[in-house]
Amino acid sequence: MSSRTDIAYEEVIDLIDDKNIKHQKSLVDNIVVDHIKIIKQNKVIDKVKGDYITIDVDDISDYASRDKIVEVVQDNLLKMIENKFDKVLIVGLGNKFVTCDSLGPKVCEQIVVTNHLYDLNKLQQKKGMSKSAVVTPGVMGQTGIETAVIVKSICDVFKPDLVIAIDALATLSISRVNRCIQLSNTGIQPGSGVKNHRGAIDFKTLKVPVIAIGVATVVSIDHLVKDVLKINHLEEYFEQIDFEKINAHDMVVTPKGMDDDLVHLSNIISLAINKVIHPNLDSM
User: Fold this and answer.
1) Alpha-carbon distance 189 to 212, whole Å?
2) Residue 97: its pLDDT value, please?
């Protein structure tokens, strides 16, 4: 059975001893951070060469916990950014009308945009305040145009030094839904976690460094069932289930508390991004 995951850690956890992978685990308070470095992609390792940082958290409802998560996301985002930047484009991927797919647009609503102020001479260039812009290109079912084509067209005109793309991800584990944040420097392929592949948004496509930030918001039915059976020590029954017969093989699910979780998650990610691209924002 094929996996449906965008989380690099889940794909390579059983391959940690592979010479083409480096793995470093750290703990910040109760936040687990796994840094996966894929040195070479091959038939066994399906993820693109590059760095993937997975941040697993327990509680996003507590204010103090969210502050610590913001700090961890901010620190690791800074590690991902290798080039100096003056102009940043934030891309919110996904469908804003579907809650579990609306993370990108929700984050973009909270990004401090400044490029228009510079263009209108209402703000002079200040150290620690980048020229930022956001775009929420929607999905191809809404626009009729590949998302990657829209983003590339904007990059050709705006000419950013850095693109940060935010998207909802798929996971293999119930425990990671709305509790796992992944950062990578390999770009992103919208829809890949649910086998709805679209054009990649990466350096090769845009000719600009792309940092991807995602949150696991859905898990497939088959892996949800597998988790439930494992918890109840009934794994041997998994192979007896015919997902094709009940037309559930390609279904994904998300928690009933997704709306509340989305508020917290979008706040965490937008605040971390704002602190990175506008480090002097608090002093303005």
Assistant:
1) 10
2) 92
Torsion over CA: 174, 180, 185, 190 (sign):
positive
Domain residue ranges of the chain, discontinuous segments joined by +: 8-279
8-279 carries CATH number 3.30.420.40: no
The DSSP code sequence of 7-29 is -HHHHHGGGTTSTTEEEEEEEET
Q: Any alpha helices (H) in the chain, and if so which ranges?
A: 8-12, 63-80, 103-108, 115-119, 140-143, 147-158, 203-206, 221-231, 258-277
Cα-flanking dihedrals φ and ψ of residue 236, to 5°? -65, -20
Indicate the pLDDT class of residue 122, thresholds 50, 70 and 90.
low
Question: Does the pLDDT at position 198 exceed 50?
Answer: yes
Q: Is the pLDDT of residue 174 over 50?
A: yes
